[in-house]
Structures are given as structure tokens and as C-alpha cells.
Amino acid sequence: MKDQAGTRPDVSAELGALRARIDSIDDTLLALISERAALAQQVGHAKQGERIYRPEREAQIVRRLRESNPGPLSGETVERLIREIMSACRAVEEVTRVAYLGPAGTFSEQAVHKQFGHEVDALAEADIDACFHAVETGRADFAVVPVENSTDGAVGRTLDLVVASPLSICGEVMLPIHQTLMRKHGDLDGIRRVYGHAQSLAQCQHWLSRHLPDAERVSVVSNSEGARRAAAEPVAATLGSEAAAALYGLSVVAARVEDEASNTTRFLVLGAHDAAPSGRDKTSLVMGAKNQPGAVVKLLQPLADAGVSMSKFESRPARSGTWEYLFFVVCEGHRKDARLAAALAEIDSRAAFLKILGSYPAASA
Ligand SMILES: O=C(O)C(=O)C[C@]1(C(=O)O)C=C[C@@H](O)C=C1
């Protein structure tokens, strides 16, 4: 015999018992989360006007819980949950305002929520320059901007701005990027135009050549702008995040159309200060070499001598118009670590120009 919901009585008794235990756990969870929020509020008062957002403390909490995670939830899920709880606790202290490359529905917006959770004022800006400007003028507390993609390389505008800006890097966010092809109605048939941000188009070029060889590719300022246009043009489709499909009333034609399955974008979090040491940090710097043979090697030698690993080395024109270059380096460690501090002092004495862009917690793998 089955009950009204079509469940056998013994199954429904077992379900009822399990759900009663889940209810009781939810009560305990809510009581504990409320207690945690009240403690965060006290921490906020104890800080007496000091900065509320502490990226190093949040990174330590995330790492500790990922390490002690008993399962069955994945490490990523545990991180997402605890970051959301910290977001809510932080908001009882003060709501954090975060500028990002808008409009809504961009991967940058996803990066904001991955780092800061959803209890933030996420401010959509027109371009990367405006994100920097928002923090520099005090309209936002932080900016989240893309700096490099694993398929398509560096975001030059971010690198240029970070050299001149008084802001410091206080965090990094690694976001797996899955591109979705979407349009108003229909499948691949009849698509004559594909919109997308230049980076998105570049990340999907082989897929597009294979599946839509005759469609025109049109680069737009953001994937959300592409979604807005595709919503109005029956023969057009756009690349972008799956979130944009729901936001702009489009249907998904094909998911995960990026050429590299591990396609990831690294974002920087910029604020008025960098972060205190968290135990597993990175330091970003930019330097200019004197125009002499072997100058770049001499600049990097102190890092090698100190046994400091470098995770990134990127050169970029110094924009002086004279074939001079700036070298961007990301190395392991915090600028306050004795070994790295000594190496940086040595580089400073050798370089034509050195700027430490900030030390910050390394993102989880
Ligand atoms: O420990 C602090 O300084 C807090 O404000 C608490 C807390 C948290 O929820 O754990 C919240 C915000 C900070 O960014 C770091 C941690």
C-alpha cells in the first residue's frame, strides 16, 4: 500500500525520522550561525574603526575548514558555504562595497561573489578604469578586476592601471570559466552572428570554427551587452555565463564551448591596503630594468638566491614609446617574510624602477 504521496508506509516512516533529524540540525545551525554573527559584531566593535574586511583571516578560516572537511561535501562547496556565512557576518559589522566590470551577469560579478559572498553591495562599472576609480575616490571599498586568463593571457589594461594606481592588491580569485552559447530561440541552425567579449570569443575560437564556420563574430564591450543584443536579434547568439541566459531571457544552445576544459580567469582584489600574512601568500611586483646586457637576469637573481619561487613573469611595454619594458612578477611569500623582504630590498637596489603591488593570500587550488 502507498500513501497519498505514493510512498510506502515503511519508507515514509524512515523519511519522516530522517527529516526530523534534519530539522533539528537546521535549528542548531541557525542558533550557531546567529551566535557567530553576534561574535562578529563584537569583533567589529573591538576593531574600533579599523578595517572590517580581513582577507588573511578569511583565507585562514577557509583553509582550516577545507583541511578538516570530513566529506561528503567537496572542498569547493565547504569554501562556498563558509564564505557565504562570513559574508553575512561581515555585513552585520558593515556592508562591503565592491566595484566590478559590469553589467550584471558577467564573470567578474561571479568573481565578486566567490570572494565576498552575496551580502555585499556589488557595483557594476562600465570598464576596468571605472573599477579602479570607484575605489580611489571612496565610492567603493574594493574592486575585483580580471588580470589573466589561462587560455588567452594577460589583461593589459589591468596591468597598466595597477602600475599607476595608489591601490594595493589584497586578494586573488581563481574562477573556472565555462562559456555558454545562447540565443533567443532555437538551436545552432540559422545563427548568422555570434557576439561576445573579445576574450570570450578568443577562448572559443576552435569551437566556433567547427560548429559555426560561417557566422560573423562580433566583439562587444561585455558578454552581457552581447546577451542584450542577442535577445533582440533572432539570427544572433552570444557567448557568456549561464547566469546571463536567465538574466536576459535567452535559451542555452550549447554549454561549455570553451576550447580548454580547464579555462580559468584570475582576478585581483584591489583596496587601499594589501593583506597581512596568512601563512600561504603571494606578492606581486613590477619592475623596470636598466638598459644593460643581462639586466633582467640580474633583477631576478635575488629571488633565485633566496629560494623564492616565481609563479608568473610577464613583460609589457612601459608606454614610453621607446621600446622600454616593465616586468610583472608574482612570487610566493609575503613581503614581510624575512627572506622575501631581503630579496626585494636587493632588487630595489638594482632596478631602475620597482613597485610592490601587494601581498595577499593565495587562492585555494
Ligand atoms: O575576525 C574578524 O576580524 C572578523 O571581522 C570576523 C570575520 C568572520 O566572519 O570570521 C568577518 C570579517 C573579516 O573579513 C574576517 C572575519
UniProtKB/TrEMBL annotation:
Keywords: Amino-acid biosynthesis, Aromatic amino acid biosynthesis, Cytoplasm, Isomerase, Lyase, Multifunctional enzyme, Phenylalanine biosynthesis. Residues 97-272 form the Prephenate dehydratase domain. Pfam families: ACT, CM_2, PDT. One of its GO terms (molecular function) is prephenate dehydratase activity. The keyword Lyase applies. It catalyses: chorismate = prephenate; prephenate + H(+) = 3-phenylpyruvate + CO2 + H2O. Residues 9-97 form the Chorismate mutase domain. InterPro entries: ACT-like_dom_sf, ACT_dom, Chor_mutase/pphenate_deHydtase, Chorismate_II_sf, CM_dom_sf, CM_II_prokaryot, G/b/e-P-prot_chorismate_mutase, Preph_deHydtase. Pathway: Metabolic intermediate biosynthesis; prephenate biosynthesis; prephenate from chorismate: step 1/1; Amino-acid biosynthesis; L-phenylalanine biosynthesis; phenylpyruvate from prephenate: step 1/1. The record marks T265 as: Essential for prephenate dehydratase activity. SMART domains: CM_2. Its EC number is 4.2.1.51, 5.4.99.5. GO terms for biological process: chorismate metabolic process; L-phenylalanine biosynthetic process. It is found in: Cytoplasm. Residues 284-361 form the ACT domain. SUPFAM superfamilies: ACT-like (SSF55021), Chorismate mutase II (SSF48600), Periplasmic binding protein-like II (SSF53850). One of its GO terms (cellular component) is cytoplasm. NCBIfam families: CM_P2 (TIGR01807), PRK11898.1 (NF008865). Catalyzes the Claisen rearrangement of chorismate to prephenate and the decarboxylation/dehydration of prephenate to phenylpyruvate. This is Bifunctional chorismate mutase/prephenate dehydratase.
